């Protein structure tokens, strides 16, 4: 893509010019979409774009911050420019490819292997803000890990905490990512109090709310939501899925599957653990044996896991490598 953005070549720019140069955040998104040429992701030279729009870099960063806070885009700084990813698109597609045949095959498969399926929970699928917040954390975990760990450490006693964005020499764009994630938690009602003071120091002060949904999401539900979204993004044909499936294993053992997906007559089992993933491997290996599944069909994703490693018939991987791993398995 050329790093020359001309008003003559982009309808969005010429149209916004007629508005007297009043570039709102959604107008800026319109420009980004046209520059990306319909793609959901690409490199944009922000300095060239600011010059083309006759606005300052401060305004550009302000628009990007608003769009990130609203979970419309995510960005990463790269040597060639800023990588922009439009989140409102195929990256976060819903279960539009649902197949009843796959659903029947999935439940029949479980029964044939001596496992009695119970209730499956899907209530989180309808919460767009929750999904965007989970995607923000999973896609940018290396950056958000410090703030997330601080929030998670207060879950039991729900003490008020402060988090300084100055301590880590965080650049402006990364500040927007962190505050965007924090703002998402606040919109979801997961904070009972939340204040962000930009000056004289960039400090977040907050307290986790005493609601089960907050504890469930922060303690690990976000990772399951993220893994589900990234797995679905790798599917290009009819499929079915079960999440948080309570099931009865042989000898009346109760177990909950995080994510089960059926695609093209194949079963995929995905478990998401935020910590101590290796402690679960022996049990998952035993259950995978009951299901007759191999390492190509059973994936354990965790921030602490290696890039990709097979342990006792289970494929273990970290968040950075999970999209590539699940795509290769599918």
Helix-strand blueprint:
Layout: H1 11-17, H2 25-35, E1 41-44, H3 46-53, H4 57-69, E2 73-78, E3 81-86, H5 100-112, E4 116-117, H6 128-139, H7 141-152, E5 161-164, H8 172-187, E6 191-197, E7 203-208, H9 212-232, E8 239-249, E9 253-263, E10 266-272, H10 281-291, E11 298-301, E12 309-311, E13 314-317, H11 322-329
Parallel strand pairs: 10-11, 11-13
Antiparallel strand pairs: 1-3, 2-3, 4-8, 5-7, 6-7, 8-9, 9-10, 12-13
Helix pairs in contact: 1-2, 2-4, 4-8, 6-7, 6-8, 6-9
Give a nutshell description of this structure.
The protein is an alpha+beta fold.
Net shape: globular
Strand content: 15-25%
Output the strand order for the largest sheet: 4-8-9-10-11-13-12
For the secondary structure, the number of strands is: 13
**What is the averaged pLDDT score?**
84
H and E order:
HHEHHEEHEHHEHEEHEEEHEEEH
- Main CATH class of the domain at 91-124 and 229-329: Alpha Beta
Major sheet attributes:
7 strands, mixed
Low-confidence spans = 18-22, 89-96
Total DSSP helices: 11
CATH architectural category of the domain at 91-124 and 229-329: 3-Layer(aba) Sandwich
Structural class: alpha+beta
CATH topology of the domain at 91-124 and 229-329: Trna Endonuclease, Chain: A, domain 1
Q: Tell me the Rg in angstroms.
A: 22 Å
């Amino acid at each position: 893509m050329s790093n020359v953005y001309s008003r003559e070549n982009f309808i969005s720019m010429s149209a916004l010019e007629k508005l007297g140069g009043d570039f709102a955040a959604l107008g800026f998104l319109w420009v980004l979409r046209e520059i990306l040429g319909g793609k959901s992701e690409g490199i944009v030279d922000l300095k060239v774009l600011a010059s083309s729009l006759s606005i300052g870099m401060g305004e550009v960063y302000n628009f990007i911050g608003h769009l990130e806070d609203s979970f419309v885009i995510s960005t990463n700084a790269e040597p060639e420019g800023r990588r922009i990813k439009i989140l409102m698109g195929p990256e976060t597609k819903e279960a539009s490819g649902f197949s009843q045949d796959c659903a029947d095959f999935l439940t029949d498969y479980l029964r044939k292997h001596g496992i009695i399926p119970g209730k499956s929970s899907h209530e989180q699928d309808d919460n767009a803000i929750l999904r965007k917040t989970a995607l923000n954390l999973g896609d940018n975990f290396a950056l958000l890990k410090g703030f997330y760990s601080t929030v998670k450490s207060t879950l039991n006693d729900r003490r008020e905490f402060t988090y300084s964005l100055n301590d880590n020499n965080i650049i402006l764009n990364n500040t927007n990512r962190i505050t965007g994630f924090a703002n998402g938690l606040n919109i979801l009602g997961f904070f009972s109090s939340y204040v962000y003071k930009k000056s004289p120091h960039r400090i977040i002060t907050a307290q986790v709310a005493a609601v089960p949904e907050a504890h469930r999401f922060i303690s690990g539900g976000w990772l399951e939501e993220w893994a589900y979204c990234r797995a679905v993004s790798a599917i290009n044909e009819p499929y079915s899925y079960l999440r948080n499936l309570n099931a009865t294993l042989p000898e009346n053992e109760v177990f909950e599957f995080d994510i089960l997906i059926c695609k093209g007559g194949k079963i995929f089992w995905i478990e998401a653990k935020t910590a101590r993933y290796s402690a679960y491997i022996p049990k998952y290996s035993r259950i995978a044996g009951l299901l007759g599944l191999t390492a190509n069909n059973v994936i354990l994703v965790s921030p602490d896991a290696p890039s990709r490693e097979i342990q006792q018939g289970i494929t273990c991987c970290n968040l950075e490598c999970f999209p590539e791993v699940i795509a290769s398995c599918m």
